[in-house]
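Appendix C reproduces, verbatim, an entry submitted by the partner laboratory led by Prof. M.T., so that reviewers can inspect both the input and the predicted structure.
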Amino acid sequence: MDEQTIGDTLVQIMEYDLKVRQRLAKTGELFDGYNKEMETVHIENARRLEDIISQIGWPTKDKVGKKARDAAMIIVQHTISLPDFQRGCLRHIKEAIDKKQEDKKYYAFLYDRICFNERRPQKFGTQYDWDRDGLMSPWIIENPDIVNILRKEYGLNPIELETKAIRQRVKDNGEQAPADFETRQQEIYNWSKKTGWIK
């Protein structure tokens, strides 16, 4: 496949991912654990992206265009049941950044997503979850006093602005906090352990 075809493929599979997500969100199925249909889509998309990476390396904006590169990032972010895949993509993104071929913010998002899956504090404050008060808030941050300095360095908005925007989006989507905070946290921990994020 040439790089134009690869770019088109990445956009198509990302759009299918979002279409399935939207349908499951409307019925409420998306929010009851990790929906099996959604997981299947994520795994299939990851395998296709893996094939693409083996052909051209990380699909940077210069190789496949901005829309396709952004699609690749969504595919990676969504593939939460394949720890080795996400960790491998983080290495590819870091290599692309070192060569000045990728934006640093994409490293920040995936680094934090891996931290969340491993149930350890994140660095850049990009990952959100329901807190004890029923608000969508940043997952635990390693060094909250310097998080906005890091965010600026990596091309991200201040965390206060991001939190406000995410809470508004959650409200607009009609998403509801879990009935029991502790039960949800235990369920996430159990899933992370079963999936291999936690040894």
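The first helix runs from residue 3 to 27. Additional entries are available on request from the coordinating office.
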